Amino acid sequence: MSGPGRFFSNWRQYRAFKRHPRDARRIVFFSESAQDWHHHATIIADLTGRHGRSICYVASDPEDPGLHQANAKIVPFCIGEGFFRIVFFQTLQADVLVTQLLDLDNMDLKRSVHPVHYIYMFHSLISTHMADHENSFDHYDTILCAGPHQGIEVRKREALRGLKPKRLVPHGYYRLEQLLAERREAPPLGDPPHIHVLLAPSWGEQTILNLFGLELTGILLDAGFTLTLRPHFQTRWKTPAVLDAITDRYGTHPNFRLIEQMGESDSLYDSHVMITDWSGAGMDYGLGLEKPVLYIDVPAKSRNETWRELGIEPFEMAVRKQIGALVPTDRLADIPAEIHRLVADPARFREQIAALRAECVHNLGSSTQAAADAICAIVDEVANGAADAGAGRVGGA
């Protein structure tokens, strides 16, 4: 759709939402990206199924699967990414808004001038205080926590900054449940090339591919491993030259392949070990598939220069040695030996991971129900005037 056509489509959808009866706007989900649907889907299914609730699904991306569901209890609206999205947030009238949008009220997307209870849902296990801005979570009323560490961090920041306490709900992390349910055994281990290595780094200037991707690819292939490179989708957009350099040299190597399809899962299930840096995919792979992760110790990705003030080691930093190994950037040549060590005793590794997962993830196996129950309880409290729909305001804002 062309620019003018898209503008008028977003305008019509925004107008349709405003005309939608206020009583039918008790639960609103906002999706910033089509990727959000994977985290929203089961909760929405439980809300509209077991709980019999109707929801409004408001999205920025016209390709968002949530806009195209054959479910009469999901009323979809696509308002785009520009002007109408800004106005939507500023004038929203609803009981609750559920979202994975970071930095509410910090940038162009503000809390409404009307009372709305804002619920933030994590879509990964990473901590709250290093990868994101210092105040990324300050303006929500309720946070659905994937693990206990996130709640501890939020409370510590509230105490340090004198913020009004939020409602913290032990939610969980459905992605792990999905991986545990769908996983299959990788092909039997053996000498290379039967050891299948998945290289799945994050994106950015200080990450694996940009720093030494070509060198590392050569080390792994020369060691005889089967290697699948699965870059973050942003790499193709931001620094395509690093991928082109690797494929120019190794694209025809019989043990190398490049995967750029985000929905592809065979490489996750068929590999024996993952190599990454600060990507959240490492935690999913280790905790969900119970296979080791080798982390290369590149500089931490941080948008909060004051994260050390909290006095809590970020989960994504602390967990690295517990789900695999940590290798300095000046010891790349040691990686083949580390891989052999990591895959040597898979049964023992699985026992260790199961114990760790039980400690660091809420409601394993029932996260969907926990979230849906909490959302319904809050909606009913708001409707009865018992919940503070403005609790996320801080500093007198």
How would you describe this protein?
The chain is of the alpha/beta class and 397 residues long. It folds into two domains: 3-173 and 364-383, Rossmann fold; 179-360, Rossmann fold, CATH 3.40.50.2000. It is built from 14 helices and 13 strands. It has helices at 3-19, 37-48, 83-91, 148-161, 174-182, 208-222, 233-238, 240-250, 266-270, 281-289, 315-318, 335-342, 346-360, 367-383; strands at residues 27-31, 55-59, 74-78, 96-99, 117-121, 142-145, 167-170, 196-199, 226-229, 256-258, 273-276, 293-296, 324-327. The strands form two sheets. The protein has a seven-stranded parallel beta sheet with strand order 3-2-1-4-5-6-7. It has a six-stranded parallel beta sheet with strand order 10-9-8-11-12-13, with helices on both faces. α2 (37-48) packs across α14 (367-383), α5 packs across α10 (281-289) and α6 packs parallel to α8. It starts with a helix and ends in a 14-residue tail after the last helix. Residues 390-397 have low confidence and may be disordered.
